[in-house]
Automatic annotation (TrEMBL):
It comes from the Bacteria. This is Aminoglycoside N(3)-acetyltransferase. It is an enzyme of class 2 (transferase). Its EC number is 2.3.1.-. Keywords: Acyltransferase, Antibiotic resistance, Transferase. Belongs to the antibiotic N-acetyltransferase family.
């Protein structure tokens, strides 16, 4: 997603009085349908999951264990702080004077994948995975993905600057390679690869984006590029469509305290794209 606030979804469970153990979460994930060896994009609200032994590290451990050694865990590690068009930017700069705005631009963080630029707005789980030994991150300064597992290098290796969340991004790789999306305590429409359908429209609008990144001499440079204008005002309606029409491939169940959803990305995007093309009716 490009920055919409999301209300966590909690499952209807009585109070437990103790944190969830990692093994219990692994059981929940497998009961929901997570398979060993698959590629799984996870987007989450840890608050909805509830207390877990080991905190966020325990949740990540459960995901890695459920996927097994042949599985690949993927998270969205976007940095809207590096964009002059994101909702984050608009909120941070609202009401600033020209001088204050110029100062804000000077302080915008410099993207440098080698120095593992932080992704503070994407949540604690994404940050935990990003910092794990062996995790690899795609090179986009605004909409990167991070992956851990055998498919990580291929998944994160190609991410064109002009293609935030299109076919030449990890979102496109996930679509083409049969990956699934797990929403832990967040709605179905939070699946970021749903943005793919916007790239498939013949009349898609474009806009100029700006990023700040490390130059060859170790300084900072401001780069402008043109890309598809991304929107998320239609995502909640797409979620209703997926809930109503995707059928058996969309699975629901609790993980910890969180009402969670597991769905195949390709089938979800194809169904949403057909709806989008037909006037969202």
């Amino acid at each position: 997603m490009t920055g919409t606030a999301v209300r966590p979804e909690r499952a209807a469970r009585p109070g437990r009085g103790r944190p969830w153990e990692v093994g219990e979460l692994v059981g929940h994930l497998k009961e929901l349908g997570v398979r060993e060896g698959e590629v799984l994009l996870v987007q989450s609200s840890l608050r909805a999951v509830g207390p877990v032994a080991g905190g966020v590290h325990g949740v990540v451990k459960a995901l890695v264990e459920a996927l097994g050694a042949r599985g690949t865990l993927v998270v969205y590690t976007a940095t809207p702080e590096n964009s002059r068009t994101s909702p984050h930017y608009r909120a941070a700069t609202a009401g600033l004077t020209p001088a204050q705005l110029a100062g804000y631009h000077e302080r915008m963080p410099v993207w440098d994948r080698a120095l593992t630029a932080a992704s503070p707005t994407m949540g604690r789980l994404a940050e935990e995975v990003r910092l794990l030994p062996g995790a690899l991150r795609s090179a986009h300064p605004q909409t990167s993905f991070t992956a851990l597992g055998p498919a990580a290098a291929e998944l994160t290796g190609g991410h064109r600057l002009e293609c935030h969340l299109g076919d030449d991004s990890p979102a496109g790789w996930l679509y083409r390679n049969g990956a699934r999306s797990l929403m832990l305590g967040v709605p179905v429409w939070c699946c970021t690869p749903l943005h793919l359908l916007e790239y498939w429209q013949p009349d898609r609008p474009e806009q100029v984006y700006t990023c700040v990144r490390r130059d060859g001499a170790g300084g900072r440079e401001v780069v402008e590029f043109t890309g598809t204008r991304l929107r998320d005002d239609h995502f909640e309606a797409m979620g209703e469509l997926l809930d109503a029409q995707l059928g058996a491939p969309l699975r629901h169940g609790p993980v910890g305290d969180a009402r969670s959803h597991l769905m195949p990305i390709r089938e979800a995007v194809d169904l949403a794209a057909k709806w989008y093309r037909n006037g969202r009716s």
